[in-house]
Amino acid sequence: MRISISQPMLFPWLGEFEKIALSDVFVHGDSVKYKKDYYSNRTTVKAPSGLKWITVPVQKVDSSQKIIDVKIDNTQSWKEHHYNRLKTYYAMAPFKMEMLNLVEDVYSAEHENISELAIASIHAVCLYLNVFPKVGFSRGSRLNITHTKTEGILEILRKLRGSVYLCGMGSQKVSERYLNHELLESERIRVEYIVYRKTAYRQLYGLFNTNVSILDGIANCGRGITSSFLSNCYYWKDLLKRQ
What are the residues whose beta carbons fall under 8 Å from the beta carbon of 146, sequence distance 6 or more? Predict the structure, then answer.
């Protein structure tokens, strides 16, 4: 059973959906601490002048607050603001209405906390693209996890009877990762990394940029964006030898 875990992100980048497609169970890590200026309540889109953030305002947050407990500031008219910006930036995109309709569907529901909104945005995209984990989704907040870091990951895998932990390969080398690979292996957990291909597709406004929301891919390619799902998984020790 291949398990992946990610913090809930608002309309995340394409690679997050590759991870979902490669997983048996995808866990929304909504019980970890909220990070300011992360992607839980914001995402990036392309505009004529470059990358732009669209951000969901949140109420006052303290340093110990979990993502699941962070409340949206619904006194602000952020939904209309997001929709209008997307409508303007992607006016020339061939599948703009499919993207805008998807956003409107997600925003039509009343969400009190940022975790629920982010998870709803991910599930809506999965439904649109027909991309799902082979077994299903889970949430860290429903698993009663008592540990953090590698010990918390191990606890999740034990509860879900996972045998493989799948994580995304970011800019760090395997040797620089926070993960205690040896601890997981001592518990018979195989660690694999997704090496993202970051396959280019036709975008508006100049050269291809991978650091954008899946909304960009949908606006430009529609459901055909799944043809960019070309990343592969590798055993961590094999990657370690190559780096």
Answer: 152, 155
Scan for tokens 């036709």, then name that residue.
202
Domain-wise residue ranges, the chain: 2-242
Tokens (6 digits) for 218:
């949908």
Amino acid at 55: T
> What CA–CA distances, in Å, run from 139 to 70, 88, 184, 190?
16, 35, 20, 21
pLDDT of 176 reads 66
Maximum distance among all Cα pairs of the chain, rounded to whole angstroms: 53
Residue 172: is it exposed, middle or buried by C-beta count within 10 angstroms (0-12/13-18/19+)? exposed
- Taking residue 28's Cβ as centre, other Cβ atoms within 10 Å add up to 23
pLDDT the model gives residue 95: 98
User: Is residue 17 over pLDDT 90?
Assistant: yes
User: What's the rounded Cα separation, in Å, for the pair 74 and 31?
Assistant: 22
pTM above 0.90, yes or no: yes
SS3 239: helix
